[in-house]
């Protein structure tokens, strides 16, 4: 990290629940009041209860946030649409270091070849230990973002509305 002079881009994906947190929620209620709407949490059957987000940041601020609309099998589309533009907006210059975890879609042959081509130009990709999400500082950003989103009342549990709400809290 020292060799990069603060020119490091951290990235990751996260799952954002549309209807509350990924944990049990408890409420104080009166007897026979268990089905009152204020005491219930909506659920979604057969998927659709969450959205996936990709984001990045550096010492200079947050980069772009991307709402992943379909099942993610590789990372090239997201990187092509967001990585270099984020680096430019954050003024990381022509050479910077990039971190992503060892998720299989990041290690896919096509993704690695894409990054290898970019490395020749200006991106140095960090080697990252397997299964070590707590080493990535973006996890703290995701936690703060989820808390901020769940504190406010989301207009409607529709994907575009949640993405708009998330973008308000993820300035770039």
TrEMBL record:
Record-annotated Tc1-like transposase DDE domain positions: 8-152
Signal peptide from the UniProt entry: none
Pfam assignment, any one: DDE_3
InterPro entries registered for this protein in UniProt: RNaseH_sf, Tc1-like_DDE_dom, Transposase_5
The organism's place on the tree of life at top rank: Eukaryota
A single GO molecular function term of this UniProt record: nucleic acid binding
Protein name: Tc1-like transposase DDE domain-containing protein
């Amino acid at each position: 990290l020292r060799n990069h002079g603060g020119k490091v881009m951290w990235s990751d994906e996260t799952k954002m629940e549309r209807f509350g947190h990924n944990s049990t929620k408890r409420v104080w209620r009166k007897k026979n009041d268990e089905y009152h709407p204020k005491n219930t949490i909506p659920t979604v059957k057969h998927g659709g209860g969450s959205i996936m987000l990709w984001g990045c940041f550096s010492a200079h601020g947050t980069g772009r946030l991307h709402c992943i609309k379909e099942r993610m099998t590789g990372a090239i589309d997201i990187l092509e649409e967001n990585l270099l533009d984020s680096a430019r907006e954050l003024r990381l210059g022509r050479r910077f270091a990039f971190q992503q975890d060892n998720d299989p879609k990041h290690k896919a042959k096509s993704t690695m070849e894409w990054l290898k081509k970019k490395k020749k130009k200006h991106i140095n990709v960090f080697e990252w230990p397997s299964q070590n999400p707590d080493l990535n500082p973006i996890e703290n950003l995701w936690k703060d973002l989820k808390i901020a989103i769940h504190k406010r009342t989301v207009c409607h549990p529709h994907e575009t509305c949640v993405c708009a709400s998330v973008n308000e809290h993820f300035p770039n």
